């Protein structure tokens, strides 16, 4: 019987590499994406390597595409072993420069999109009494940071959701894993939505922080490292609640653990503003 995996946002970056890694691990992998015309590259690789990858339409903001995709998968395979909630985007702008609409859109994709997809797979995982749900959070889900409060809040919400559902799903044999990448070299920075206007009082701060982040992204950890960590996590007998990825993520999370709140705040201020 094929093991079955679903990945959201597989058109590029972490989702693309994770779908390939799962297929190379022997999973029949549904590489879902909102625009299936972007699926030709992964299908070419699958053909060359003889991998079981199917491209299926799934927009995490569109309930009916999720329902249709999950129905198709369950009809074909009658099981779902792994769901990787990866789809997301990066909203940039200080709080005063963000509209409620900008924030709602960010949560729609990065948080409610995950909720919708999880809710769609749970009946199948519950009835088979097994399954692994991998939520791609971020080091941004653990650490406040200026200029990206919308993105940070969506990832903090995802952390709270993941930590809570881990308890709820454990009695049904379903495991929940949070992945916390640092800065990864993907399209995330090229496709970000920046709400900072030229006359914003936060323009100087926003430009400085974003320059630093974009520079970090050029030297970022390759997305293959995230995929490797996901495989390690899902193949371990008792997966940990959280897996950071990248030296930057490990460094920030260790600093947060070792310092008081005010010491940590001073550390971030020194990194950013001195
Ligand atoms: N790169 C980093 O530094 C970093 C660090 C920590 C966490 N992450 C997280 O990693 C995840 C993947 O990002 P990435 O870095 O790999 O960036 P990416 O290359 O830009 O990939 C983002 C993916 O999400 C998809 N997507 C966006 N909105 C969607 C929607 N409504 N429905 C379905 N798919 C949607 C995109 O599809 P389209 O091609 O159609 O736009 C794309 O496939 C995100 O959740 C991000 O927050 C990234």
- Round the Cα radius of gyration to an integer and report it: 19 Å
Q: Order of strands across the biggest sheet?
A: 3-2-1-4-6-7-9
Number of domains: 1
Q: Strand portion, in percent?
A: 15-25%
Q: Give me the count of strands.
A: 9
The second-level CATH architecture is 3-Layer(aba) Sandwich
Cofactors and ligands present? NADP nicotinamide-adenine-dinucleotide phosphate
For the record, the CATH class is Alpha Beta
Q: Level of helix content? A: 40-55%
> What kind of sheet is the major sheet?
7 strands, parallel
- Poorly predicted ranges (pLDDT <50, ≥5 residues)? none
Succession of helices and strands: EHEHEHEEHEHEEHHEHH
CATH fold-level topology: Rossmann fold
CATH homologous superfamily designation: NAD(P)-binding Rossmann-like Domain
N-end to C-end Cα span: 58 Å
Globally, the shape reads globular
Q: Which structural class should the secondary elements be placed in?
A: alpha/beta
Q: What is the mean pLDDT?
A: 97
Q: Count up the helices.
A: 9
Describe the structure.
There is one protein chain. With 274 residues, the chain is an alpha/beta fold. The protein has one domain: 3-Layer(aba) Sandwich (Rossmann fold), CATH 3.40.50. Helix content is 51%, strand content 16%. The chain contains nine helices and nine strands. The chain has helices at 13-24, 40-49, 63-77, 100-128, 149-169, 203-218, 223-235, 247-258, 261-273; strands at 3-7, 27-33, 53-57, 82-85, 91-92, 131-136, 174-181, 193-194, 242-245. Strands 3-2-1-4-6-7-9 form a seven-stranded parallel sheet, sandwiched between helices. A two-stranded parallel ribbon has the order 5-8. α1 links the parallel β1 and β2. α1 packs across α7 (223-235) and α4 (100-128) runs parallel beside α5 (149-169). It is globular, with a radius of gyration of 19 Å. The mean pLDDT is 97. The structure holds NADP nicotinamide-adenine-dinucleotide phosphate (NAP).
């Amino acid at each position: 019987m094929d093991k079955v995996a679903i990945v959201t946002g597989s058109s590029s970056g972490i989702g693309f590499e994770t779908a390939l890694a799962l297929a190379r691990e022997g999973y029949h992998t549904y590489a879902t994406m909102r625009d299936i015309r972007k699926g030709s590259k992964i299908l070419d690789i699958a053909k060359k390597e003889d991998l079981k990858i199917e491209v299926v339409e799934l927009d995490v903001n569109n309930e009916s595409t999720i329902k249709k995709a999950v129905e198709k998968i369950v009809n074909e395979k009658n099981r779902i072993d792994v769901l990787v909630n990866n789809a997301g985007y990066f909203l940039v702008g200080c709080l005063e420069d963000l509209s409620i609409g900008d924030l709602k859109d960010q949560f729609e994709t990065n948080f409610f999109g995950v909720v919708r997809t999880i809710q769609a797979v749970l009946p199948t995982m519950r009835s088979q009494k097994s399954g692994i749900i991998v939520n791609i959070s971020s080091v941004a889900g653990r650490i406040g940071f200026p200029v990206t409060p919308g993105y940070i809040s969506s990832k903090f919400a995802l952390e709270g959701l993941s930590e809570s559902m881990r308890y709820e799903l454990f009695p049904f044999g379903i495991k929940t894993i949070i992945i916390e990448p640092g800065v990864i070299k993907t399209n995330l920075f090229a496709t970000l939505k920046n709400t900072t206007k030229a006359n914003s009082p936060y323009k100087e701060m926003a430009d400085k922080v974003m320059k630093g982040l974009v520079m970090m992204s050029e030297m970022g950890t390759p997305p293959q490292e995230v995929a490797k960590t996901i495989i390690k996590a899902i193949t371990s007998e008792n997966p940990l609640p959280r897996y950071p990825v990248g030296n930057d993520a490990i460094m920030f999370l260790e600093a947060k653990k070792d310092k008081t709140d005010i010491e940590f705040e001073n550390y971030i201020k020194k990194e950013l503003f001195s």
